[in-house]
Amino acid sequence: MGTLSNSIESVHRARTRAIPILLLIVGMSAGIMAALPVPARAAEGYWWGSPVNPGFDRNTVIRATGTVLQVDIAARGGPGTLSLQTSTESITVILGPSWFLSEQHVDIQNGDPLVVEGAKTMDRRGNLHLVAASVTNRRTGAVLQLRDDEGRPLWTGGRPSWKR
User: At the fourth CATH level, which superfamily is domain 43-163?
Assistant: First the structure.
């Protein structure tokens, strides 16, 4: 009888030691998952830390015509943007990842006349932004296609998009 009792006690001790270890592993895993940034969905024209509300809503797509005031498509890891002055307002246009724009050899300069199609969105301060689907440069005649008809970004498929 003593042997059975000893076996039961040793199993009980092993289980008692395993429970805190198991809880520690589960807790650490949950903590790590909570600390990791949630990646944005590729089709949303949104990047981690963006001040713009996520979403490429095809129902808000507009065509804006204007002149480039400032362009920032330097390969620095963030999104390429430009400021477009229309006849009524200045709009920040979010183009796409700088690395993608660099691969496309995008030629957009200050003063260029552009036609931009994209989804309207607002930042946290209420400023209008346009998540570009396509950009036509009237100076060069080039069309930069950034998204497909569903609003999905072309850089996720690796297809060339800068055409003359």
Answer: Nucleic acid-binding proteins (2.40.50.140)
Q: How far is CA 75 from CA 63, 90, 98, 122, 135, in A?
A: 26, 24, 5, 25, 19
Q: What is the pLDDT of residue 46?
A: 46
Instruction: Give the C-alpha separation, 92 to 82, whole Å.
Output: 6
pLDDT digits (tens, 9 = 90+) for 97-110: 888 898 888 899 99
State the Cα–Cα distance between residues 105 and 107, nearest whole angstrom.
6
In whole angstroms, what is the distance from residue 122 CA to residue 32 CA?
32
Q: What is the dihedral of CA 59, 65, 66, 70, to 10 degrees?
A: 40
Task: Show me where the domains of the chain are located.
Answer: 1-36, 43-163
Amino acid at 150: E
Length of the chain: 164
Bridge-based pairing state of the strands 90-97 and 113-122: unpaired
